[in-house]
Structure prediction request, 502 residues.
Amino acid sequence: MAYPPAARSSPPRQPSVKVILASADVQRVVDRIAHQILEKTQGAADTVLLGIPTRGTPLARRLAARISTFEDVAVGVGVLDITLYRDDLRRQGTRAVGPTELPPGGIDGKRVILVDDVLFSGRTVRAALDALNDVGRPASVQLAVLVDRGHRELPIRADYVGKNIPTSLAESVKVTLAETDGVDEVKLYGGSPS
Amino acid sequence: MIKHLLSGADLDADTATEILDTAAEMATVAGREIKKLPALRGRTVVNLFYEDSTRTRISFEAAAKRLSADVINFSAKGSSVTKGESLKDTALTLQAMGADAVVVRHPASGAPHRLANWVDGSVVNAGDGTHEHPTQALLDAYTMRARLGRLAGLSVAVVGDVLHSRVARSNVLLLSTLGAKVTLVGPPTLIPVDIAGALAPATDVSYDLDSVLPNVDVVMMLRVQRERMNDSYFPSAREYARRYGLDGPRMRRLPEHAIVMHPGPMNRGMEITPEVADSPRSTIVEQVTNGVSVRMAVLYLLLGGNNR
Prediction:
């Protein structure tokens, strides 16, 4: 098929990239969530932070470290792998199964705070709630996320949100952390050029 | 990931390691109060057993059920097979019933390969004739890695009836892929000529167990298959036990860290003495436990995705 010369010579459109949170912002947001957890849980006693891989895990560790800095309280940290509980296993290629690590003492009777980087459809959190069901019986479950980008497909909301980022479905949010990617940053891809 | 698991040769080092790593995660489920995962909910796994094998069938059944798959057990005894139905017709019936995976044990070498051409689902070879038994090799490799911390560089002696042993063949292929060195040991009548060259060129052959023992990390004793001993492969059971059986004094010639394996069922007093089988070096019970985890990993990786 022949294209008109004008169309052929026009430069390809660059997808726009916008930095929503820079490194210092990410640190501030984590500090704020840590304070909110301490406030809402009245001292974070009997609280366990469970990170959802991949980036929820270092976030959970950071939150625990900040909580112990602010209030001198040791909060249990663990990892909750949700691979086998996903509802898209048939659609996606096979995913590698990761470890689930619970802090000593488990989660029975504790207040569990699930930690993830981005809250989007809510399906990851649903899978995490199912996974949690199989490893113990917490007294209550809360959810902390670094970014809430909206577009929920399930009736799920976060108790602690670092930043609300209204997005369109055509856009994507990418969180990078120093532990996994070398730099702390939240970027929005595909939005209207600013 | 591959679609079928028919042979130890189907697995490259990365895929085999992925299965072993996944099995390690699956093993944590066995320690939980609720030993169940929803990963294969709505999938159907058919255990198609033309040969009796309670151990393997139960292991696959437990694995599939822990992943929430529906399991149909099909035993050739008392089925339409005894009325003359062919493997192909059975396969077409399974196909019509919507089997997502068929776990097949068959007395004819190569039957799972044929079956893989007739069904859309994944086929897992659970032992075909004297050919292969790849999930047994995977669980053996898993057990070695769990006990000794590695596979690359291990020296493994596989002792006994190599001629009739599908376990030996699959182990030689898989262990060689994963960097272990295998020595096949047994009477000359039970080690096929040039089997090492045919399977993996780096494999050694020895007819003298005592000279091999001080240099190995793993001794894998094979079952003497009395049901296949219709020719005179060795003079008598007693002579076999004396030359190739693993007893207490022989076990003490092994290096301090070495382990003793057996795929079961054992002929106690023939290829292995009770003293060895029940010693802390023996991994025989662990192998059964690990079998469920490894088969969970295989079923999940074959059926979990859309690579079908």
The CA atoms of residues 82 and 128 of chain A lie 6 Å apart.
